[in-house]
Design brief:
The structure is a single chain. By secondary structure, the protein is of the alpha+beta class. Helices cover 18% and strands 36% of the residues. It contains 8 helices and 33 strands. The protein has a 7-stranded mixed sheet. The protein is globular and about 95 Å long. The N terminus is likely disordered. The protein binds zinc ion.
């Protein structure tokens, strides 16, 4: 282990961190959805301790204003005493002189965009990427983590939002949402000195490859094995590689070694929801695994057909935390699958009957091959797990397992590694560059 760590350090020292160049023309402003979709509001209350310019109208300090929908794409701005300040179509921007504004009792840096659409108000926070990261890091990490792990997360979160995060919700009028779908963002509410310091210490720094900002996907825990994107999403990326994680101690992390029970009905209804009807689910069979052990091909056997799930679908179809799992029947005892003219069926006991006797074979059957040797056909003859009572899934990790493991970064930092070493370990071959501020 020690040798491995030293070898890694040597690689990093010789690595590609010498040039902190400056990619130009990068827009570092981020639009974050706060209330949107089914969570869009009828009205949003906002205020600040400094005067607010809202669509050209001035709202005095300490005064509440309300952005309300008037139906369609129109909105109206009223103050707390009912005075109507303006009406607008589409969007209206509010910005406080001190750069901090409170919306529905939560503080945010930067500006707020109120977008009237379909009779509701979508609320968007527009701010600098580093102001955004102040509100991301305390929710995506623990502020008590070592500084180098927090700095690694700052660079990863910055790279992510400035690459694939850009315009992910463009149809809704913003870049990223404030949930785990993109990155959890809490505005000012959870800001901590340690996480703000990590943002400041890495200001503007992003991971790049061939001059482009890297889509630095990450997950909470990879279960002890870093995954190649080809086994999850399909398609290879040079810096998403499959290798054992030398640092993450999955067994020590609460909730990262887990069991889940999935019912037959749940699987059937999830398949139905996507237009696949194979009847009642009878069995599951892992057909292929990646080197990591992640399930990459899963057969779902129904009484009216079967369905093959591939890559990430092997996880999402069963509603699991990760793709790294094994399956057991939730029913009792081993069972044998028998194929009848009508299709598969499952029996716990076998009997054979001659004209005058019945022999009980239990759950093992013997047959004789062409050379006269006795060959046992056991439950293991089929890899499928049959059950009418659901399936118990034993799994490891949380998330897709590609790129940085957040817990792995914590262990690396505790072992004395710098944030640059952490980034090079989880995204081998990338460079660190600074975007213009
Ligand atoms: Zn999102």
């Amino acid at each position: 282990m020690k040798k491995r760590i030293l070898a890694l350090a040597a690689v990093c020292l010789l690595g590609s961190f010498s040039a902190f160049a400056a990619p130009t023309g990068v827009d570092t402003t981020v639009k974050v959805g706060l209330y949107y979709g089914s969570g869009a509001l009828d009205q949003a209350a906002f205020s600040a301790v400094a005067p607010i310019n809202a669509g050209g109208a001035v709202i005095p300090a300490w005064t509440f204003a309300y952005a309300k929908s008037t139906g369609g794409d129109g909105g109206v701005l009223v103050t707390g005493d009912g005075t109507q300040l303006l009406t607008w179509q589409g969007g209206m921007v509010a910005h406080a002189d001190n750069n901090i504004i409170t919306v529905n009792e939560k503080e945010y840096r930067g500006s707020i965009i109120f977008l009237a659409s379909e009779g509701k108000i979508t609320v968007i926070n527009q701010l600098s990427v580093d102001g955004y990261l102040y509100g991301v890091l305390p929710s995506e990490t623990y502020p008590s983590w070592p500084a180098e792990a927090l700095k690694a997360q700052a660079v990863v979160s910055r790279s992510y939002v400035l690459s694939s995060g850009r315009g992910r919700h463009s149809a809704q009028g913003f870049d990223v949402c404030n949930t785990t779908h993109c990155q959890v963002y809490s505005g000012n509410a959870k800001e901590a000195a340690s996480t703000n310091a990590a943002v400041d210490a890495t200001i503007g720094q992003v991971c790049t490859h061939n001059g482009a900002i890297v889509n630095t996907v990450f997950s909470a825990s990879n279960g002890g094995y870093i995954e190649d994107s080809v086994n999850v999403w399909g398609g290879s990326t040079p810096y998403f590689v499959s290798k054992k994680d030398d640092f993450e101690k999955t067994d020590e992390i609460k909730g990262m070694v887990w069991d889940a029970t999935v019912t037959n009905d749940t699987i059937q209804s999830k398949l139905s929801a996507s237009g696949v009807n194979i009847g009642a689910v009878k069995g599951l069979e892992i057909l292929e695994k990646a080197a990591s052990g992640r399930v990459t091909k899963l057969r779902i056997i129904g009484d009216n057909g079967e369905y093959i799930a591939e890559r990430e679908r092997c996880r999402t179809l069963l509603g699991l935390k990760s793709q790294l799992y094994t399956i057991e029947s939730a029913g009792s005892g081993s069972q044998i699958s028998a194929i009848s003219a009508g299709g598969n069926s499952t029996v716990a006991d076998f009997f054979v009957r001659s004209a005058d006797t019945t022999a009980h074979l239990g759950n093992s059957i013997w047959t004789v091959d062409g050379s006269g040797n006795k060959v046992q056909l056991s439950a293991n003859a089929s890899q499928a797990v049959w059950s009418d009572n659901g399936f118990v899934i034993h799994g490891r990790g949380n998330g897709h397992g590609i790129g940085m493991s957040q817990w792995g970064s914590e262990y690396m930092a505790e072992a004395g590694h710098s944030y640059l070493e952490i980034l090079q370990y989880y995204y081998p071959g990338i460079s660190i560059e600074t975007v213009n501020q």
